Amino acid sequence: xxxxxxxxxDKLGFDIRNICASNLIFLRSHDARGSGYPKTADQCWExxxxxxNIVRPKCIIAFGNSSVSPYRYIYNKFKPDYDVQPINxxxxxWLCKVFRTSILxxxxxxxxxxxxxxxAIDKHDNVIDWVKLQIK
Length: 136
Known about the structure:
Blueprint: H1 2-12, H2 39-55, E1 59-63, H3 70-78, E2 82-88, E3 95-103, E4 106-113, H4 125-135
Parallel strand pairs: 1-4
Antiparallel strand pairs: 2-3, 3-4
């Protein structure tokens, strides 16, 4: 996972040491079903709001974009202002998704990638190029 994160952010032109990162839910579990989602995500959201107020991100890249995922949680919570057509990730039926919304008064692009623990982003530079276009 760390190798894929470094690869992604290097290709996007960001120093990984300057990236703010967090899990949506601060509870250890083997999978989404064991995490108590979405109730535990709601309980953790107050911390995310404080972080967002400090960092003031223009973009959030969510790892995992299925129906039970950080991407879907943010999507449902903030309803998109503008939804972009998803693209194929290049791995099976997995998609890459993006929407634009307002979070705490900030215009934010939310990118949803397949979870990098399972998705070899380093084999799909076309997806990284697509992400670059979305976060401009």
